């Protein structure tokens, strides 16, 4: 069941008309569905049955406190990549003991704060990070739980900008040198080796690359075991894709089933770091048509949202469905490029979309819950938009639209 549906020719988010949300909170705005978020998280969590596991939602996909709070209440773990994300998780009621810390460039202050908070594990991505964590843990007199994010050199078959598990990518430790790092780690006084991690890319639509990466991980784990290095968990990262247009990614349960089959009898706790698959289709971006500009070559619909609000189309040429909030027959059906007001030719939300449009119409960009608001910016001095969480018949403003004064808060004139 989809929680963004038409009822009597009006788009609804759960039991609330999208149009009413815009009357209340203005346009543009992101709208999230709590029921969808919960259903997606449970699809991962439930697929493990009695097998020890932890679903660590990847905070970067959408770090709104309301979103994090919904997941924290379900008992979710969290995958973070910065101190900012850690503080968000804690502010949203997340449990530090369920946080894994990924990222290629962890600063000293970030590591110290995470050690003090008592997070579950550091996913080490570069050799020097191991020594840095060991030193800082020593200063605090604690032992740091670590795992290595290995780069298995597997082609995730996704957009090159979001592929992370190939040798030429900056992420993780080359799987061929990881054994030496594990040996080093096992001998350090303030380090406890607890796991292994990999994340090969995002928006994967096949199970195969995940299994290829898992095979490589298992080989390494077997070698480690022979050397007396025993791991508690395997973290297989995130990356499961969603349907934006006609992709047919495996369902979380199918993917997890395939992983468990490949693992066979084992004694590891399994960690996953899904982001997009939990929040992507739990959100839409609503925008209003400001002007229609038919030209000799193209028809432009200029809307009030732009690339600064939703970057994916501009950055990756990503296709996201755009639908009318209140479909009507008062205009001809023609192809429109849906563009924003930002001064960049690459500022578009969609191209060549067949729609009946009039000035003032509201449009919904679907599948916008992941990497939507979290990648937004103030480019062109545009205040960031409001975010609303729908919960049945209720709406909660989970982030107020930025004010103009907030745009320059912290800036100053010269003395
Ligand atoms: C380390 C890590 N884990 C998890 C994720 C989440 O990925 P996705 O949103 O594709 O599930 C990412 C982003 O790709 C990541 O870099
Ligand atoms: N931002 C990307 C995904 C990057 C994932 C980060 N590890 C997207 O929108 O598809």
From TrEMBL:
GO molecular function annotations of the record: diaminopimelate decarboxylase activity; pyridoxal phosphate binding
Binding site for pyridoxal 5'-phosphate: 239, 273-276, 371
GO biological processes: lysine biosynthetic process via diaminopimelate
Residue ranges constituting the Orn/DAP/Arg decarboxylase 2 N-terminal domain according to the UniProt record: 35-280
Lyase in keyword set: yes
Cofactor: pyridoxal 5'-phosphate
Top-level taxon of the source organism: Bacteria
Keywords, comma-separated and alphabetical: Amino-acid biosynthesis, Decarboxylase, Lyase, Lysine biosynthesis, Pyridoxal phosphate
Pathway entry: Amino-acid biosynthesis; L-lysine biosynthesis via DAP pathway; L-lysine from DL-2,6-diaminopimelate: step 1/1
Annotated positions of the N6-(pyridoxal phosphate)lysine modification: 60
Keyword Disulfide bond: no
Active site residues per record: 343
Similarity-based family: Belongs to the Orn/Lys/Arg decarboxylase class-II family. LysA subfamily.
PANTHER family recorded: DIAMINOPIMELATE DECARBOXYLASE (PTHR43727), GROUP IV DECARBOXYLASE (PTHR43727:SF2)
Its biological purpose: Specifically catalyzes the decarboxylation of meso-diaminopimelate (meso-DAP) to L-lysine.
Protein name in the entry: Diaminopimelate decarboxylase
Organism: Methylovulum psychrotolerans
């Amino acid at each position: 069941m989809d929680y963004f549906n038409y009822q009597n020719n009006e788009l609804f988010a759960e039991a609330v008309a999208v149009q009413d949300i815009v009357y209340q909170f203005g346009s543009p705005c992101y709208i999230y569905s709590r029921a969808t978020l919960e259903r997606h998280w449970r699809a991962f969590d439930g697929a493990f049955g009695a097998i020890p596991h932890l679903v660590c939602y990847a905070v970067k996909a959408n770090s709104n406190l309301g979103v994090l709070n919904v997941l924290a209440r379900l008992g979710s773990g969290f995958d973070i990549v910065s101190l900012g994300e850690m503080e968000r998780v804690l502010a949203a009621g997340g449990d530090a003991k369920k946080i894994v810390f990924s990222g290629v460039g962890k600063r000293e202050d970030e590591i110290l704060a995470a050690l003090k908070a008592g997070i579950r594990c550091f996913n080490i991505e570069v050799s020097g990070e191991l020594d840095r964590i060991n030193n800082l843990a020593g200063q605090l007199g604690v032992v740091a739980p670590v795992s290595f994010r290995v780069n298995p050199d597997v082609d995730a078959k996704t957009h090159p900008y979001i592929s992370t598990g190939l040798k030429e990518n900056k992420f993780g430790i080359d799987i061929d040198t990881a054994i030496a790092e594990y040996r080093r780690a096992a001998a350090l006084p303030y380090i406890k080796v607890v796991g292994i991690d990999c994340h090969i890319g995002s928006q994967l639509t096949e199970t195969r690359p995940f299994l290829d990466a898992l095979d490589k991980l298992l080989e390494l784990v077997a070698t480690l075991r022979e050397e007396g290095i025993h791991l508690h968990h395997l973290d297989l990262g995130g990356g499961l894709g969603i349907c934006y247009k006609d992709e047919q990614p495996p369902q979380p349960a199918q993917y997890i089933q395939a992983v468990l089959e490949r693992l066979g009898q084992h004694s590891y706790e399994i960690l996953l770091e899904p982001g997009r698959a939990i929040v992507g289709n739990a959100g839409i971006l609503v925008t209003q048509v400001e002007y229609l500009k038919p030209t000799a070559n193209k028809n432009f619909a200029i809307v009030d949202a732009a690339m600064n609000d939703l970057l994916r189309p501009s950055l990756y040429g990503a296709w996201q469905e755009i639908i009318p909030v209140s479909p009507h027959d008062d205009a001809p059906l023609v192809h429109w490029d849906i563009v924003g007001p930002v001064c960049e030719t690459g500022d578009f939300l969609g191209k060549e979309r067949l729609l009946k449009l009039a000035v003032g119409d509201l449009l919904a960009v679907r599948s916008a819950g992941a990497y939507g608001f979290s990648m937004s910016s103030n480019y062109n001095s545009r205040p960031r938009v409001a975010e609303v969480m729908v919960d049945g018949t209720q709406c909660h403003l989970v982030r107020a639209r930025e004010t103009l004064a907030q745009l320059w808060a912290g800036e100053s004139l010269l003395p």
